[in-house]
């Protein structure tokens, strides 16, 4: 199990994200380069915005027996303009703290809790280990999209 490596990688996301965003011209942050797809701003806000939800899911997996989780679908289970209306600097400003709290919570989990089952309507298996790994892939997917929207000559 690579839990320590996953947590170390997750701890770096806020710094990597902020450094990358600092290189992007502010005038293109809210530009939607692909019709119907998110802007850089929306991707950048989404990553820290979901952190409290993920932390709550870990807490529930620790405290409850087989908790059930509904999907979070931005624009479907939340207002479509929720992310574009966010203050990106404030959202990012809280991210390091909320991510570190999540990591500390995960580090405090006994080994047997890492594979404690929960149910998610979109996934066949769901436990803290899968959720932590999924969060890392989620972060990197959105950071890749940010870089692609920023640097690609055409999309």
The H-level CATH homologous superfamily, spelled out, is: dinb family like domain
Secondary-structure element order, N to C: HHHEHEH
How many domains? The number is 1
Q: Do you know the CATH topology?
A: Four Helix Bundle (Hemerythrin (Met), subunit A)
Radius of gyration: 16 Å
Point out poorly predicted stretches: none
Q: Describe the sheet with the most strands.
A: 2 strands, parallel
Name the CATH architecture: Up-down Bundle
Beta strands, count = 2
Textual characterization of the structure:
The protein is mainly alpha-helical and 155 residues long. The protein has a single domain, classed as dinb family like domain (Four Helix Bundle (Hemerythrin (Met), subunit A)), CATH 1.20.120.450. The chain contains 5 helices and 2 strands. Helix 2 (40-49) packs antiparallel against helix 5 (128-151) and helix 3 runs parallel beside helix 4. The longest helix is centred in the last third of the chain and has 24 residues, at 128-151. The chain is globular and about 50 Å long. The mean pLDDT is 95.
Structural topology:
Blueprint: H1 3-22, H2 40-49, H3 51-63, E1 68-69, H4 88-107, E2 119-120, H5 128-151
Keywords:
single chain; 155 residues; mainly alpha; Four Helix Bundle (Hemerythrin (Met), subunit A); two-stranded parallel ribbon; 5 helices; 2 strands; 56% helix; globular
Short description:
This protein is an all-alpha fold. Helix content is 56%, strand content 3%.
């Amino acid at each position: 199990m690579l839990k320590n490596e996953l947590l170390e990688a997750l701890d770096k996301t806020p710094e990597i994200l902020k450094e990358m965003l600092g290189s992007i011209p502010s005038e293109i942050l809210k530009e939607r380069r692909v019709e119907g797809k998110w802007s850089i701003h929306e991707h950048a806000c989404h990553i820290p915005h979901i952190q409290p939800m993920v932390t709550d899911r870990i807490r529930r997996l620790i405290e409850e027996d087989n908790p059930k989780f509904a999907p979070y679908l931005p624009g479907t289970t939340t207002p479509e303009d929720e992310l574009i209306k966010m203050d990106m600097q404030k959202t990012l400003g809280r991210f390091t703290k909320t991510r570190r709290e999540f990591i500390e919570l995960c580090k405090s989990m006994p080994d047997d809790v890492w594979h404690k089952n929960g149910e998610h309507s979109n996934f066949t298996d769901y436990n803290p280990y899968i959720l932590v790994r999924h969060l890392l892939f989620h972060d990197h997917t959105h950071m890749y999209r940010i870089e692609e929207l920023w640097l690609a000559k055409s999309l």
